Amino acid sequence: MPEGTLCNRKMVNEKEFLSALLADKQGKQYYAELNELDVDHKKLVDTLSKTLKSRTKTWLEICAHCGMCADSCFFYLANKKDPEQVPSYKIQSTLGRLVKAPHKADNAFMQYCMDTAWGKCTCCNRCGSYCPFGIDMGVMFSYLRGLLFSQGFVPWELKIGSGMHRIYQAQMDVTSEDWVETCEWMAEESEEEYPGLEIPIDKEGADIMYTVNAREPKHYPQDIAEAAMLFHIAGENWTVPSRGWEETSLAMFAGDWEACKMQVESVYAAMDRLKPKRMVVTECGHAYRATVIEGPYWAGLASGKTPVESLHYVEWVAEALRTGKLKIDPAKKIKEPVTYQDSCNYIRNAGLRDIPREIMSYIAEDFREMKPCKEHNFCCGGGGGMNGLGRYREQRNIGLKVKRDQILATGAKLVISPCHNCWDAIRDMEEVYRIGIRWSFLKPLLLDMVIVPEHLRAEE
């Protein structure tokens, strides 16, 4: 069968197509059609000829199969050091074979590539830190995902996620109207506790343009309220855009590079329209990577930088604490042992290794590092889209063992994780393994201990 009704090489640009995918519970029809999907060899060869550049070719050729990357991979460690989980094996047995003989790729091989690219790798880039030749398997797996997406071999959930970005410019079906209404609702809900609090929408020339993860208006609107409260206490001149408010990119996880460009350009258009001095990204690692690190290149910006200076939320928090915009009540600092989950996407991709430790010095009396930590920390186990992929849930849960053991070794029962994927993975880890931990973003913890200036306090 060349292409199915749901599983095919078509882009999800219409709501009808998206609705049909959503109606296919657990992707039953989608995966049945996947088993019959043909490989378009001409398109595959053409794509490789246009996109396979010298860097990737060199990486594939110079790999010495030394195995130095093996212990860097949490999947390898969690799966009893299975040789087929060694990063170099995973990339050579998929992309390496595909590049050498694209005409021989059949359905079974493409499904093997798909199951490896999304089910055995989170593109955390940790292996690249340990390769003596600097080979980055995370980058190559991202490239492989793009090839597979163009052929229709992509997990059902990410076909949907890519379509959401194309249609809504958000990873979920949240319209601009929904977003604005949620902001207005949260401002109204917070007014009694914080008189005068506003969530300014489309304010031009603000010091900060704040952008979020679509999960917040869809499922966690209190996160938006908490951000507003902290900006209010800090006396920030800030705003949110009515359009271009969504930072995340499931399209990046899917390998849909055209949708990645569309998504990030919606955020940059908001920057151009509102002309803020800076942008602050919510507590989400991949949102920061997609919009701040990768985004400028997808958008073709020669500078390699976003149109205005852009910060991850941890950077704003550290700055606010350092400058005294936020002041912590010493009596309310975290007394119990606490540890911190470093997000791969702003530790290894942006180098924000010391900023979180600065925050911990202000808010925690017994901070305990995971080992290893900072840029050497292991992935939470749910990055790269894996949290949301039912097809690979068992593999994801096995991979969580490494993070579980890291947390247990600290003796801490509270884990701070300023990243949606990390937060989700640690939540799921507790549901699976019942190790008796709690997890939190920074915002609610800060609100419990920050000193509210008298003129901002509600009357008793």
Automatic annotation (TrEMBL):
One of the record's GO molecular function terms: 4 iron, 4 sulfur cluster binding
NCBIfam families named among the record's database cross-references: sulf_resp_HmcF
UniProt xrefs under PANTHER family: FUMARATE REDUCTASE IRON-SULFUR SUBUNIT, HETERODISULFIDE REDUCTASE
Keyword Iron set for record: yes
InterPro entries: 4Fe4S_Fe-S-bd, 4Fe4S_Fe_S_CS, Cys_rich_dom, Helical_ferredxn, HmcF
Pfam family, one: CCG
Keyword tags: 4Fe-4S, Electron transport, Iron, Iron-sulfur, Metal-binding, Transport
SUPFAM superfamilies found in the cross-reference section: alpha-helical ferredoxin (SSF46548)
Protein name in UniProt: (Fe-S)-binding protein
